[in-house]
Amino acid sequence: MVPVGEGWQLLTIRGIPLRIHPSWFVILLLATLGFQQQYAISLRGQLAPPALWAVALVTSLALFVSVLLHELGHSLVALRQGVKVKSITLFLLGGVASVERECSTARGALMVAAAGPAVSLALGIGLLASSHAATHLTPVLGQMVERLGALNLILGLFNLLPGLPLDGGLIVKALVWEFSGSQRRGVEVANTCGRFLSLFAVGMGTVLLLRGGGIGGAWLILLGWFGLGAARNQKQMLVVQQALKDLKVKDVAQRRFRVMEADTSLRELSRMRLGTAPPIAEAGEGAAPSDKDVNGPAEWLLVCDRGRWQGVIDDAPLQALPVQCWDRERVGDHLQPLSSLPSIPESAPLWQAALQLEDGDHQRLLVLSPAGLPCGTVERPELGDAVLKKLGLRLPANLLTAARRENGYPLGMALGQVARGMVSSGEVSLLTDSVGR
Fold first, then answer.
1. pTM (2 decimals)?
2. Whether residue 286 sits in one domain with residue 217
3. What is the separation of C-alpha 9 from the centre of its chain, rounded to a whole number of angstroms?
4. What gap in Å lies between CA 423 and CA 104, rounded to an integer?
């Protein structure tokens, strides 16, 4: 087994990594203990204690093979819909298939959601139908097949409950999406159902626990808390998507570039790069911002001439020319056009900036005013900070500084993937909102 971030990778199936989370061993132990107690009652004296434990362990492993087949049902249909499956992980509460993105159509999402329960129900019916024949071979095998059949039926029917994060909730979401035309509306309806079911599970589990229900009551409470957490996360995702739609680039833009005059020498450019010279130019009205507004390191050096933008310069001239030439060579003689920088209009929504940073793998974007002039820059840390504020969270300065140092989103937010999912689901459209370079 190869240790990975989500557990240990056992093997790959159709290119899909199968992983075992450490918590899976806990449920394996509990399931084996439960099966051993059941077999001890139903097979009185027919098997020695070691054999009982062996049969219980085999039954537990077979049950999780059923869970794996359930997740493979989802995954193989997702692959047919053009969705990449990153992994299948078995953990404390069963199994989960991690996909790169959601299906781009409601019907595709419906097929993926229904595939898992269909596999479980087919397994359950098939195993129950064969239990009589298995009993003729040996009573132990008959009981094992019957139990596995019943559990697969329960697994399939339980997952059809109409609330997120269960498959039934995903089916509800897809159906509402199909008939309303809004994926967001589907998520809201399914999430509300999921929250109700989770609260009901917590309440029922508490009642069972108080009445001596033991492991059954505790398990219902655990499932309920898991569902409430998933509902809360889904609600936060809706807020994140709405923030990416409502906020504009101008709301988060910073001024992380420096400004130089075109007649500046390459010697001064070298000093600026080494941090031994102050920023050089003040910009004309409506053109470049003053460098006194720039905080932190600035990788881009924009060049203007008497208030008019001329282009951008990098370190290439310093590397190409001998040091003796640096005093007589001017910055304006070695410019690249501003159009060589990835840019975005200040009126664009944030999801466009997140998508452009993700798909183009850019470090930052140049923000353009309505007149097409540079007025700032936007980077991942600023996007993440703005979205978190919409969620009511204010980042400590040290976390924002760390994110800026790594040029990543704070707290590991994947806003680029969220934006891509919004496009693929039709929540936003690139046809009506053009993205910059």
1. 0.69
2. no
3. 20
4. 8
Which pLDDT score is estimated for 214? 63
What is the rounded CA–CA span in Å between residue 242 and residue 225? Answer: 26
Residue type at 298? A
pLDDT at res. 304: 87
Q: Are residues 239 and 253 in the same domain?
A: no
* Domain end marker among 111, 126, 160: 160
Distance CA 98, CA 327 (A): 58
Q: Which of 6-20, 380-394, 398-412 has the highest mean pLDDT?
A: 380-394
Angle, helices 106-137 vs 167-180, to 10°: value is: 150
Give the residue numbers annotated as catalytic, written as ranges.
Answer: 71
Residues 6+ apart with CB under 8 A from 278: 291
Residue 37 has, within 13 A of its CA and on its CB side, a CA count of 5
Residue 183: give the domain boundaries: 177-246
Largest CA distance in the chain: 100
The region of weakest confidence among 242-256, 285-299, 335-349, 372-386 is: 285-299
Whether 171 is in a domain gets the answer no
